[in-house]
Amino acid sequence: MQTIHLIFNCNQWKEYASGRLIAATTDAEAMYAVIGGEIRAGNMDYDSETATVGFMKFKEDYMKGEVNLSKLDYGMVIETCNAQTSEPQSLPEHCANIPRLLSESELASEPYTEIEEELEVD
Questions:
Q1: pTM for the structure as a whole
Q2: Which of 18, 79, 101, 104 could form a disulfide with 11, with the two C-beta atoms 3.0–4.6 Å apart?
Q3: 83-to-92, 108, 119 alpha-carbon distances in Å
């Protein structure tokens, strides 16, 4: 199966709740191009306090083949497998690896229950 790189803008602590998907690609070079553009625009940092210095550090690491995505601030990359497959046995394996973004207690919280009670089904 192909690996899909999901690129997010996020807060400094890389919390899932703060993430905003900005790109998804199966091509690692495209992933690096998107990240480089985000660093250059000042939307992400790479081991630096300024966009210019961060971009230069990212470019140096890229040229050496040593990009370390954990050096990203205000950005994160999640890698997952492409679920579109003709191999049915791969789908359960894929689903088992999906990160759980909401706990069961969050799904069963009262605000959701109150909204459901207010809805009328015709």
A1: 0.66
A2: 18
A3: 10, 27, 33
Domain total in the chain: 1
Q: Which two tokens stand for residue 61?
A: 């690491």
Give residue 17's pLDDT: 84
Count CB neighbours of 46 within 10 A.
Answer: 27
Whether 42 contacts 57, CB under 8 Å: no
CA–CA dist 108, 90 (Å, integer)? 30
- Helix intervals (H) in the chain: 28-40, 51-64, 90-96, 104-107, 110-118
Tell me what percent of the residues of the chain surpass a pLDDT of 70: 66
pLDDT tens, position by position, 38-90: 999 999 999 988 889 999 999 999 999 999 999 999 999 999 887 665 655 55
Residue 35 burial (10 A CB sphere; 0-12, 13-18, 19+): buried
What residues have CB less than 8 Å from 80, skipping those under 6 apart? 3, 4, 6, 94, 97, 98
Check pLDDT > 80 for residue 8.
Answer: yes
